[in-house]
Design goal:
The relative contact order is 0.13. The chain is α/β, with parallel strands linked by helices.
Length: 268
Amino acid sequence: MTGPTGNIGRPVVGMLVQRGERVRALTRARAVAGLPDGVEVVLGDLERPETMAHALEGVEALHLFPVPDTAEQLARAARRAGVRRIVVLSCGSAGHGDEHHLRVERAVQDTGPQWTQLRPYGLMANALLWAETVRTESVVRAPYPSFSYPHVHEADVAAVAVAALLEEGHAGATYTVSGPEPLSQLDQARVIGAAIGREVGFQELDAAATHELWEGWGYSPEAVDHELFLLGEFAETPAPSGRTVADLLGQMPRTFAQWADEHADAFR
């Protein structure tokens, strides 16, 4: 597991352990909190492929967090180590020309063993970026309030990843994974309000204010511009839905209302 403590990586680790699998988690830190008992933690850095050889020894399947600059070296190292499958955590934006994720996808396709690409549409967990202003001011600040995306619960993406890591029938597939329905940002604010028991307003930001806010969160100016482009693209027409866990695994996809109830304390 690379990215074992992320929004998707952490539930993948938990689901694998529940299924009785031996899991090795790659981390740059010696101490990692919150991983299940029995998970083997090894030191390594995706940005330094020379640190990865020992981590790949004896590994059958690799969950790959996207780091474009080293993806080809990592895929080659995985093949040399005898890794049979790589599941790439990509993004729905790859279907709209996002080179950050496309570079990783191509590197694994060209040089790695069996592969499956997962392209989740916007994660429901992204709404946690609004938590501070909802807690303190009962407002969401974002551009394009009518932007509508079939946001997907991170646990649903994790379930598809686990199936692709362990089961036959997913090799060579690129799955755009979406939630059960498109939901606008205005509707997300309303649903969060229902979960916490008070009304949550929405303040629309222009491009300059969005840059100021998101660059403060750590986004590069180029990443903000790309996100603004995608938001504008789906402001009038909802983004097309991909495949849900109902299509892929036969289980009902989680709704944003469920997600908001699960994370209500973060917004209170």
